[in-house]
Amino acid sequence: MAKVLLMPPIHSYKQYPTYLSLSDFPTGFAYIASALKEAEHQVVGLNLNNKRGYGTGLSLMKDKLPEAIKDVDLIGLGGLCIDYAFIRDAIGVIREVSDVPIVLGGRIVSNDEEVFDILKPDYAIIGEAEEAMVSLASTFDNGGSNPPWIIRATPPDVDTLPLPDYEPFDIKEMIDDY
């Protein structure tokens, strides 16, 4: 069983602190969490949204991220183009303390292929990520080497995907604090 950290972007990262409503939470992370759990991988979520008490989003990440990535096999990041600064900084903080493989997904990857060369994640996933993340996690769990490519088509029937799992992302805390 691989241990995978999933970290959704901090909403309005450059304007920290801001508040993210549950309706704005990036649901793709919850779908990926469900798929990984269904495949018997361990999922750890690091949702830094609505956390107060730091001067900047970067200082929040520098405090919380190093501890969160201890003993993980794979890190999943993603977002939209507006999340570029968050993703850049998150990868920078991760690379300062660890060489754990980073997977980048979301529209930021599919909008501009140069983002892969600039941000330098280990992997990028375009489109639905559930099967590809499970495949990557299984590869690392079985002691496999880094696969150069994993290609998965969008599932023909998205109704076959498990329902989203919000539990790893402290959604209850977000609702209570909102």
From TrEMBL:
Location of the B12-binding domain: 7-147
UniProt keywords, alphabetically: Iron, Iron-sulfur, Metal-binding, S-adenosyl-L-methionine
Keyword field contains Ribosomal protein: no
Pfam families on file: B12-binding
Coiled coil: none
Keyword Electron transport applies: no
Single GO MF annotation: metal ion binding
Cofactor(s) listed in the protein's UniProt record: [4Fe-4S] cluster
Name of the protein in question: B12-binding domain-containing protein
